[in-house]
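I am writing to request your help with a piece of structural work I have in hand. I set the record out below, with my sincere thanks for your time.
___
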Amino acid sequence: MRFINKYYLIVLGLSALPLISIFSTSQFPHVHDGIVHLARMAAYFKALQDFQIPVRWAGDLNFGYGMPLFNFIYHVPYLLSALFIFLGFGLVSTFKIVLSLSFLLSGVFMFAFAKAFFKDDKKALLVTIFYQFAPFRLVELLVRGSYGEVYAYTFFPLVLFGLVKIFQKRDMVSVIVTGTATGLLILSHNALSLTFFGISVLFILIFAGSKKNISLGMLGLLVGLFLSAFYFLPAIMEHKYTYGDLHMRDLFRDHFPPIQNFFIPNLTNAESLQTGGISVQFGLFHAIAIVLGVYILFKKKLESKYKQVIIFSLILIVSSLFIMSNFSLFLWEKISFLRQFQFSWRFLGVVVFATSLMSISFLSFKFFTRKWVFLILIFAVVFSTFYYWKPPLGFNKIDEKYYWNYSLDTTYYGETDVIWSAGGASSYPKQRVEIIGGKATISNFKKKSNKHTFTVDAQTDSQIIDHTQYFHGWRVRVDGNITPIEFQDPNNRGEITFRVLKGRHDVKVEFGETRLRLFADIVSIATLLGLIVLLILRRRFAK
């Protein structure tokens, strides 16, 4: 127990406070995105049961037509969910556990980073409390229920911890920690992970201190890219086959908060200070930290490192304010990639991090270094968010069976609907497989999330439709031989149709990897194996 710093226990204890409400009932917290996550959790678990690795296709969603959901949607929270479901927990309990775990771990990792970076327990604790109890963090947790974004907040500090250790030790273990954390960050949330990845690059350039440290830091991030290549490469390269750009093209226009709403304290989560049901305030003490940071930057003599921290944080805050305001409208209109963020206020995640670093400005004043004043400050920050400690929309009684057999597609804007279809399905097909040309019968039909098998007895040459939404990777084998798929039939848009000759045939319709996905898989597997070999060799040489 000697290695357990008491401050970690303080962080865990305080971080547990906002989580009490969701465990005080067996009901499901009514959060914005909650129900779609339940359906995705069930779909992901069923795909793993069918040995679909990596998981890309959700076979039962979209009224059984399926969809390439997990080819484009982050994996970490659903993979963790699958573990708890496997252990016997229900969907609701699993959602609560996985959501809570993200918050607790983010506190641990943030303290580890801040302690390594500032080499001061008091500063590390203050930074961590500001990070954990920024109002928007709790909005993400208990208002939005952002299953992926909360894990981006978890692994970002771990990336920075690895980078600091690289700067201090220049060893391979630190590179591996950084790479692993970066990979997990990328697998946590598409938009927010990209933002935090960019900040990590900037962090290296500002704080590395030498060209060698810059090289090693960049190597750590590169390792993370390679580890997560199986996901992000297909997600980027195959995005053009979806309706994502079309349906989300103008979504950003209605989500620019009034600039004053960022600074006006919204301690009671008042609707008048919300944008689209989201409180966008920085936080009372976080705003004060910015003011104090600017003051000491110009009025006090600071060590070079602390001056860099303040300037680094201010750059992030000012940049985020600009991109979240309608002054940046021209950028959102011209840069299609930026529109994938959907909501400008997502950049509040950057402000959360930057203002947590700025919190050290309090300790530049002797008044706040006094023990009792410091403790009051800590508890004031924590309890100023009290109104955010329970879901404002309350709780719902959930029938979990409904989500195990969910019929819709779990996306709000059809962003994973494929371009060859007419959009999401609206009803189940009368039969999963039908004869649409010729004369034949179907028997022995068996369905998994990524594979369908059946027997065709064709009295004549026949055309068959498998009511599955086509996407690259689906293949039809008739008697073991690849058969062309006619997925652009105007009468059956985007569905799998194919032909068989007269006779009896064994048919397998299976979803697998394309050349691109296979290449990405190999990159990730090779990187993972390489890291394992390096760790084994390091241990042997150490002996």
